[in-house]
Amino acid sequence: MRTITATEASRSFAALLDDVEKGETVIVTRGGRRIAAIGPTTAGNGTEVLALLRSAKVDEQFADDLKDIRDAALAETPGWPDD
């Protein structure tokens, strides 16, 4: 992993992307502070996530819990007592 300044990244962005495409992760700094990490992305298209969501077992009580929380959050709260 290498580190470059934001100015360097701006001036050689195409080369930076070439390095990332080859698998390298690059840290970008500005004023000596890390502001970004640019690295390769996964090749997936979300198929695995969709399959996981479809195979997950639903907790029947969970929907009721969410409704109770929502109702409690939307309920009128008592105002401040009059002084």
| Low-confidence runs of at least 5 consecutive residues | none
Strand arrangement across the biggest beta sheet:
1-2-3
Mean pLDDT: 88
> Level of helix content?
40-55%
First-to-last CA distance: 63 Å
CATH T-level fold name of the domain at 2-38: YefM-like fold
Could you tell me the number of beta strands?
Answer: 3
Shape: flat
Order of helices and strands: EHHEEHH
- Beta-strand residue fraction: 15-25%
Largest sheet: 3 strands, mixed
CATH class placement of the domain at 2-38 = Alpha Beta
Computed CA radius of gyration, to the nearest angstrom: 24 Å
Summed up, the helix count is: 4
Class by SSE composition: alpha+beta
CATH architecture of the domain at 2-38: 3-Layer(aba) Sandwich
Keywords:
83 residues, 18% strand, alpha+beta
Walk me through this protein's architecture.
Strands 1-2-3 form a 3-stranded mixed β-sheet. The protein has helices spanning 6-11, 13-21, 47-55, 60-74, and strands at residues 2-5, 26-30, 33-38. It is an alpha+beta fold and 83 residues long. The chain has 4 helices and 3 strands, in the order βααββαα. It starts with a strand and ends in a 9-residue tail after the last helix. The chain has a domain at 2-38: YefM-like fold (3-Layer(aba) Sandwich).
Task: Give me the secondary-structure topology.
Elements: E1 2-5, H1 6-11, H2 13-21, E2 26-30, E3 33-38, H3 47-55, H4 60-74
Parallel strand pairs: 1-2
Antiparallel strand pairs: 2-3
